[in-house]
Amino acid sequence: MSLIFQTSPWWVLVCLLAGVGYAALLYQPLPGKAVAEGWSRGLNYGLAALRFLAVTLLALLLLNPLIRSLQTRTEAPKVVLAIDNSESMTAAGRPALNQTLTMLQTVRQQLTDKGYDVSVRTLSDTAAPAELTQLAFRQRTTDLSKLLDGIRSDYEGRHLTDVILLTDGLSNQGLSPTFGTYPFAIRAVGVGDTVPKKDVLLKAVVANRVAYLNNSFPVKAEITSNGFAGRSAVVVLRQGTREVGRQTVRFDKNDTFSSVEFKTTATQKGVQRFTVDVLPQEGEFSKVNNRQDVYIEVIDGREKVLLLGLSPHPDLKAFRAILEKNQNYDVDVRTLSTAEGTSIPIDKTYDLLILHQLPDITNIGNAAVAKLLAKNTPTLFVVGVQSSVAALNPLNPVISVLGPPNQSDKAAAYFNPDFKQLNLDQTRLDLLDKLPPLTTPYGEYKLLPGSETVLWQQIGTVRTTKPLLAINTTGTRKTAVLLGEGFWQWRLEEYALTGKQEIVDELMQKVLQLISVKEDRRKLRVYPVRNEFLAGEAVSFETELYNDIYERQYGVPIRLDLVDERDVTRTFNYTPTEANSRFDVSRLPEGVYRFKATATLNNRAEQSAGQFIVRDIQLEAVNTTADHGLLRQLAAQSGGTFYKGADAGAIVNDLTKRATPARLSSTESLNEIINWRWIFFIILTLAGAEWALRKYNGGY
Mind listing the UniProt keywords for this protein, alphabetically (predicted)? Predict the structure, then answer.
């Protein structure tokens, strides 16, 4: 420690003179006496000394000196023992693995005795046991890159010299560890068998995630084999416990990859589990990797869309092509002036209406339109030269057009940047400037309350504030109005310019989705944070509860019932709070689960239901052949060494024969001396002692 002055050191002399002067003036001898107040000479000098010290210290504090301190810390070299505790590590047998763990336990103790700071890390977050042979190898996945990156991050700036990595080299998650750069040497200890096993592996099952009720769909299984050339295997497809298909696959002598495809039919709605199983072969190394599950959501029908036009028109074909890009739409196309228009199913329930040039000036379809709109079905009106604008105005909540009938304009489109309900790329929408104009009604346009403009009209080179495409999602019926005929030309022109039909189609698809999306008005909403979870992972449910004006409510008990595929019910009770509105369920076995949550709010029963999947992915069983080549590459890149499991004991000699001294680190700090509390108490003690002595000896 040292004292640093922020001013000239000569000011210290001034502080000393101030202390001397103050003490001399206060304790100078009285006239005719040897000392002040008639005290003894010794007491007088003692009091003067106390006053001198107190005043000098106070004066020095006014100079605000700094105390410079230097702390030196000795840091021993650190070694991390990183252990891959995944399931694949035991593929070659636990006894052989335990022998290597015992050797590493000895290495750990020897390095500690030689002054190294040794710690243990695993793939899991749990602390490693004192004896490495007691470590459980139960991790369902392996991410070596994440393990090494975590060590690099946690030990940044510390004296970490080496990482001893015990693994079989099989990484099935994240990036390859060889892609990373590490500031420490990796001593890779390879375990497991590098000789390919005699095995049949179900490599992948390919199927659509969504199927429609009573429709057939394919399930494709990809199979590889080693050591079974010229033999056959039976592949079985099951739905639950019911077998729905069986095929035989033959392994060619020169080709170990084979595939089979099943055709099955979705007979139940909801999430269904299908299992593909390759029946085991005699002498097969592992039977765990012969089976995989695939989960398919079976939908009970698509969203029904009625595309109704006054007469055949290219616009109808354009809208149909856009709708059919989405497999969730079932499009019914009809025109009033043709035979199919005479049998419009008025009583049928639709999820979306697209009315082209309806209501019309001839009143052919106005009665049918009125009945369709009475159900408050989301609607897109497409206005053309045969539309009756006067009849349209009272039917839509979006816009009112006032003008002479049978008069039109030619208007191109430009995007309204203030429209934020849709996530649209404005740079891509610059294409609208190059598209041909639409035929729009002439007149005065007035947006109704709650409406927003998506596209404005551009007449010639003049950008107007007349809407071309507007939308209203605030009313009882969500509605959009396209005030232009000739939309089909936009798709053709985009294809001529770009060779694709994406931008215009995306714009219209999103507008239709916005007005057709069903609003959730439930008071209780309980839902899993994901649709799929891994076996062993906690299933988290988010809970939202609302009062009549849709304000969040807390503190209401919730009952949650989970039903598995065997109709076994698990019941849980919890109470969400403002600090924690989630509820976790742990240790659920694999399968499809239905859930129902119930609560009582204002003496009314509220409920919420749904489904989720717990998937058991056997990633660790897919490949059981150790990859020591990756470990050699990783060790060479980091300046380390590769060891076989039986040679792990040589690590101690390799580390200790290299001089690795402890690292000295110094920390310098500057502190103001006025912040030292004991200075205050010293001054207080000096002043208090002087006062007490003066009083005791009769002074004032």
Answer: Membrane, Transmembrane, Transmembrane helix
Token pair for 324: 């059919």
Instruction: Tell me how far apart the alpha carbons of residues 111 and 114 are, in angstroms, rounded to a whole number.
Output: 5
Eight-class DSSP state of 213? T
Q: How far apart are the first and last CA of the chain?
A: 41
Q: 3-state SS of 507-525?
A: HHHHHHHHHHCCCCCCCEE
Q: Which residues contact 682 (CB under 8 A, 6 or more apart)?
A: 57
* Cα distances (Å, whole numbers) of residue 192 to 88, 96, 120, 173, 555: 9, 9, 21, 19, 53
CB crowding 628-651: b at 16 or more within 10 Å, else e: bebbebbbeebebbbbebeebeeb
Q: Which helix (H) or strand (E) holds 335?
A: strand 329-335
Let me know: does 328 contact 308? Beta carbons within 8 Å.
no
Tokens, residue 242: 């019911």
Q: The tokens 């058991």 sit on which residue? A: 616
Nearest CA among 355, 353, 357, 360 for reference residue 391: 360
Global pTM value: 0.57
Q: CA-to-CA distance for 97 and 137, rounded, in angstroms?
A: 10
683 backbone dihedrals φ, ψ, rounded to 5°: -65, -40
Q: Which residue has the tokens 């899991």?
A: 124
Which ranges of 474-571 does DSSP label H, i.e. alpha helix? 488-498, 503-516
Strand partners, 474: none
626 and 192 Cβ atoms separated by less than 8 Å: yes
Number of CB atoms found within 10 A of residue 58's CB: 17
For the chain, residues with pLDDT lower than 70 are: 30-38, 254-255, 301, 339-343, 520, 699-700
Q: What is the pLDDT of residues 51-88, one digit of tens each?
A: 899 999 898 888 888 888 888 888 889 999 999 998 88
> Could you give the angle at the alpha carbon of 473 between the alpha carbons of 470 and 476, nearest 5°?
125
Greatest Cα-to-Cα distance within the chain, rounded to the nearest angstrom: 139
